[in-house]
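Shipment paperwork, digital attachment
Item: protein structure file
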Amino acid sequence: MTCFFSTFAPPPLIPVNLEKVDIANAAVASVSGSIISRLLIGTICDLAGPRYGCACLIVVTAPAVFCMMIVNTITGFIMVRFFIRFALATFVSCEFWMRSMFNSKIVGLANATAAGWGNVGGVVTQLVMPLGFSLIQHQFGAEYFTAWRLAFFLPDVMHVVMGLLDLTLGQDLPDGNYAALKRSGDEVMDTFGKVLYHGPTNYRTWIFTITYGYCSGVELTVHNIIAEYFY
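Attachment content:
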């Protein structure tokens, strides 16, 4: 939920001085960042486990969210949106995590719950970010540009807190973490080369790529432009 919240936090607060083409370019950059990061996080989960993958991605992308508070050019805005979108790859690590923690009798429900809760963040941010901006501007008397920047403090704090909670309280598998299980010999040690070969060469990968590409593509597009119809 945190990463969906921060990823889609900028659209409801699009600066009024941006042209349509700038907004479109920022949306394209945002989607591009998500594609790259999801490919990387899948490999990290296979090799190091979903706990490290999820926690590290949330913490590493926190500076990108912070940079939204200090950006002052169109190019900077587009680049920040590109890097913030890397956080959305936590969707992959969470789904991987659910499959690792639950058996076949309930894994479908677990996956659906985790995915649905994550998507809620993309909806909540459409309401919370404008409300936060309005509160800072009108209740605390901040200037427009100051309120706009301070509003992004919320998703940044969420990133740091959730990343640390994942790292300290999370567990890769029901019987322990990847690192400990590999040291004890209870977990098969995959190599980067093996993961890189078997992933793309499995036909199921490409079936799911096409299926997910169509549905997720629509979702990402809607989240990027729907705010223009709200405000």
